[in-house]
Amino acid sequence: MQKPVEQEWALTIDPGTVRLLASKARILSAALNADYDDGHEHEIEIDGDARDRHQHDGLIEEEEEDLTEVEFRELVADLNVDEIAELIALAWVGRGDYDVKEWSTAVSDARQHGAKHVATYLLGMPMLYDWLIDGLDALGAS
User: Fold this and answer.
1) Could you tell me the superkingdom of the organism this chain comes from (predicted)?
2) Does any domain span residue 81?
3) pTM confidence score
4) How far apart are CA 22 and CA 132, in angstroms?
5) What is the pLDDT of residue 116?
6) Is residue 132 included in any domain, yes or no?
7) How far is CA 40 from CA 33, 36, 46, 47, 96, in A?
8) Residue 113 falls within a domain, yes or no?
9) Under 8 Å CB-to-CB from 130, ≥6 apart: which residues?
10) What is residue 79's predicted lDDT score, i.e. its pLDDT?
């Protein structure tokens, strides 16, 4: 965790929105890791003598769809260009790619990244939750 710099940063993106996105990223990361914990993704054993006595209960039995990723993507899609640049820059500062003193450079470079596929880019970061929170902490915006 970086020590906050003695400067107030006027963020366009609401820190609450960043924390919400970070929380969704944490949930997604935890779900992904749980699938692979034992090294056997969805492995099952079937006994040759077993019979399927299961009766299907229709839609009641259907698994709930995890909408966390959909929600994450929708939240990112609702951000304006300035907010997207700051969100990416926060992740970069939190990851250590930029020092907090280089905030304006980080935001400028993030603008170069563009607004296309931002959610996919961010979700590809394995420690997105930590990096977003660390970025907020570095700016003293947490």
Assistant:
1) Bacteria
2) yes
3) 0.72
4) 6
5) 81
6) yes
7) 12, 6, 15, 18, 34
8) yes
9) 94
10) 95
Number of domains in the chain: 1
Integer CA distances (angstroms), 82 to 49, 78, 86, in order: 62, 12, 6
pLDDT at position 29: 80
Q: What percent of the residues of the chain are helix, what percent strand, and what percent coil, each to the nearest 5?
A: 60, 0, 40
Ramachandran class of 114: left when φ > 0, alpha when ψ lies in -120 to 50, beta otherwise: left
In single-letter form, the type of residue at position 60 comes to I
Q: How does pLDDT run across 56-70, given as a tens digit for each residue?
A: 444 444 444 567 899
**Do the domain assignments include residue 42?**
no
Across the chain, which has 142 residues, the per-10-residue mean pLDDT values are 55 95 89 49 46 48 64 94 96 96 96 87 94 96 76
Of 121, 101, 125, nearest to 110 by C-alpha is 121
Report the alpha-carbon distance of residue 17 to residue 135 in Å, rounded. 13
What is the extent of the structural domain holding 23? 15-35+64-139
For 3, other C-beta atoms within 10 Å of its C-beta total 9
CA distances to 52, 81, 85 from 115, rounded to whole Å, are 50, 7, 8
